[in-house]
């Protein structure tokens, strides 16, 4: 049985259709990247998968049980569901609402009635693991962007969820913090189902083995990272790449910007995993 | 930290005020962890004691009794290592101003023994009017002092949990909990909005420009803060929050809590007996 099963799921914000007849299945242990431009429905999909929003028509099921208001009011189901599914929001500020970093990490376990001893031990272990011990007694909203993201991730990982939903995990981060975040994600996703919404193509190869591309609330394409990243017309159509124009001395050239690392050596251009060179490129 | 100077305009003053309120919230969170007398009491004793003291101070018709409760609160403030200067600045002055505005008309409108005529206006100030105004002020100051004492010595989550012990419905506690988070978010958001405006400000703004700014900030703020507060609630729900408050340490009554209850009951009973 698939861990998630979506059948013609629709969700609308007043006039705007955010998800349009989405049908897909997610298997246990899969690492999936949900790709799409801003407003393509990625974040809404994650909220449906976390039982925060409910499909207005069609259905979203978790291990065969439909996620709707009725099932999310069943205490036994909610307890299990919240324990097994963790969601890291895009904006860490909305996720950090406790007076200290310690309280932030203890919040989830407290809701699930862990014992005092268990919580104190688990918080310390997580703080060590995420290099956050020095921030233990700090006020979360006074931390830097990267620290906030790490605290938000740590607070979700506290419950060791089987399913991890990540909404733009590298947003708001400087390059070093981005790299650290990817390392954390790669490290913590063993044996987990990890569903990451992003438009950062650079991280896809590291965090996913399947990509689902969204376009205006619909599934536009699904495939392995190499299949998706190799389909330039799809990436252009869904605004995941754009024509990048820049200058080397007196030479101006352009190429598709894939948000991947590439180097410019001695006036020539060499790229790692290049797409097609545009005419006139040196 | 912003310095308040008269040459600063509306924008800077508002930002400074917001920064001060945010600082104040942080001070409250920090001072609740101090090793003072009231901080060490069980939160249920503090919540219950605060309610009893406030009721005693505002329900009595004897000014001296309100004064006695106020003095008792002052003693608790000192024993809790809280700053009286901070109290004066952040509580007493504000209450004096706002309650004063309400109480002022009572001085000249309450009939009774005239003790003073206001020159030029020929308004008669009565003894009864002065007493009424002073009583209102004393009650408001005492109630605010006790409330601040509770806030500065108790974490907000502990206050909420205590309210559940007194059978306050879960819905009300959830609303209170979300209101606090909403207000905090609102303050942060307002400060960010004004900071952004301030960074693009060139020269002095006219009064009409300042009014325009206030109106635009208010409209943006309402929709943005509603959106953000919903997001915060979803983030809490996602981590298992159902409205019930769970704490790391469950409350337990110790000898000093029982002693406090006895002292409190004795003080209140004595005051009522004497009055």
Helix vs. strand class of chain B: mainly alpha
In DSSP terms (H or I, runs of 4 or more residues), the helix count of chain A works out at 10
CA-atom Rg of chain A in angstroms: 20 Å
User: What is the largest interface, and how many residues per chain?
Assistant: A-B, 31 and 21 residues
**What gap, in angstroms, lies between the N and C termini of chain B?**
48 Å
Helix content of chain B: over 70%
Helix content of chain A: 25-40%
Largest sheet of chain A: 6 strands, mixed
Number of domains of chain A: 2
Q: Give the DSSP E fraction of chain A (strand runs of 2 or more residues).
A: 25-35%
What is the overall shape of chain B? flat
Averaged pLDDT of chain B, please?
A: 80
The SSE order of chain A reads EEEHEEHEHHHHEHEHEEHHEEEE
Explain what this protein looks like in three dimensions.
The complex is a heterodimer of chains A (282) and B (275). Chain A is of the alpha/beta class and 282 residues long. Chain A has 2 domains: 4-237, Rossmann fold (3-Layer(aba) Sandwich); 244-271, no CATH class. Chain A is 32% helix and 29% strand. Chain A has 10 helices and 14 strands. By secondary structure, chain B is mainly alpha-helical. Chain B has 2 domains: 1-31 and 156-244, no CATH class; 33-154 and 250-275, no CATH class. Helices cover 73% and strands 3% of the residues of chain B. Chain B contains 9 helices and 2 strands; from the N terminus they run ααααββααααα. In chain B, helix 1 crosses helix 7 (170-199). The radius of gyration of chain B is 23 Å and the shape is flat. The chains are: A alpha/beta (282), B mainly alpha (275). At the A-B interface, helix 2, helix 3, helix 4 and helix 5 of A face helix 8 of B.
């Amino acid at each position: 049985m698939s861990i998630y099963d979506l059948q013609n799921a629709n969700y609308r914000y007043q006039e705007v259709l955010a998800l349009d007849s989405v049908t897909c299945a997610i298997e246990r242990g899969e690492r999936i990247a949900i790709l799409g431009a801003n407003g393509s429905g990625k974040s809404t999909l994650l909220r449906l998968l976390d039982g925060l929003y409910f499909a207005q028509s069609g259905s979203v099921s978790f291990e065969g049980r439909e996620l709707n208001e009725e099932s999310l009011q069943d205490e036994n189901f909610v307890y299990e569901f919240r324990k097994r599914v963790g969601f890291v929001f895009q904006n860490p500020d909305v996720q950090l609402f406790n007076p200290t970093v310690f309280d932030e990490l203890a919040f989830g376990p407290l809701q699930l009635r862990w014992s005092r001893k268990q919580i104190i031990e688990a918080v310390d272990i997580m703080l060590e693991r995420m290099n956050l011990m020095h921030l233990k007694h700090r006020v979360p909203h006074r931390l830097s962007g990267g620290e906030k993201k790490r605290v938000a991730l740590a607070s979700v990982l506290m419950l060791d969820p089987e399913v991890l939903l990540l909404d733009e995990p590298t947003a708001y981060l400087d390059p070093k913090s981005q790299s650290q975040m990817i390392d954390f994600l790669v490290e913590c996703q063993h044996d987990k189902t990890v569903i990451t919404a992003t438009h950062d193509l650079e991280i896809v190869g590291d965090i996913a083995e399947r990509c689902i591309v969204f376009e205006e609330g619909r599934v536009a394409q699904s495939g392995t990272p190499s299949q998706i990243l190799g389909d330039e017309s799809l990436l252009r159509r869904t605004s995941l790449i754009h024509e990048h124009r820049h200058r080397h001395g007196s030479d101006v050239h352009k190429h598709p910007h894939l948000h991947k690392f590439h180097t410019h050596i001695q006036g020539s251009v060499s790229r790692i995993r290049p797409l097609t060179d545009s005419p006139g490129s040196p | 930290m912003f310095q308040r100077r008269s040459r600063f305009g509306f924008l800077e003053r508002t930002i400074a005020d917001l920064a001060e309120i945010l600082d104040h919230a942080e001070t409250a969170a920090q001072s609740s962890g101090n090793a003072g007398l009231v901080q060490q009491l069980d939160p249920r004793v503090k919540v219950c004691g605060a309610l009893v003291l406030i009721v005693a101070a505002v329900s009595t018709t004897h000014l001296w009794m309100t004064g006695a409760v106020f003095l008792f609160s002052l003693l608790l403030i000192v024993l809790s290592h809280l700053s009286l200067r901070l109290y004066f600045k952040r509580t007493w002055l504000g209450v004096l101003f706002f309650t004063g505005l309400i109480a002022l008309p009572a001085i000249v409108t309450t009939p009774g023994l005239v003790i003073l005529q206001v020159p030029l206006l020929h308004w008669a100030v009565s003894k009864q009017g002065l007493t009424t105004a002073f009583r209102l002020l004393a009650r408001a100051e005492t109630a605010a002092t006790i409330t601040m004492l509770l806030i500065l010595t108790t974490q907000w989550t502990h206050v909420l949990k205590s309210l559940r012990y007194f059978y306050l419905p879960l819905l009300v506690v959830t609303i209170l909990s979300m209101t606090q988070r909403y207000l905090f978010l609102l303050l942060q958001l307002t400060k960010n909005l004004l900071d952004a405006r301030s960074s693009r400000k060139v020269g002095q703004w006219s009064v009409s420009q300042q009014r325009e700014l206030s109106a635009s900030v208010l409209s943006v703020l309402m929709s943005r803060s509603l959106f953000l507060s919903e997001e915060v609630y979803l983030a809490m729900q996602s981590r298992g929050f159902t409205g019930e408050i769970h704490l790391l340490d469950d409350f337990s009554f110790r000898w000093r809590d029982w002693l406090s209850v006895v002292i409190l009951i004795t003080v209140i009973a004595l005051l009522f007996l004497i009055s």
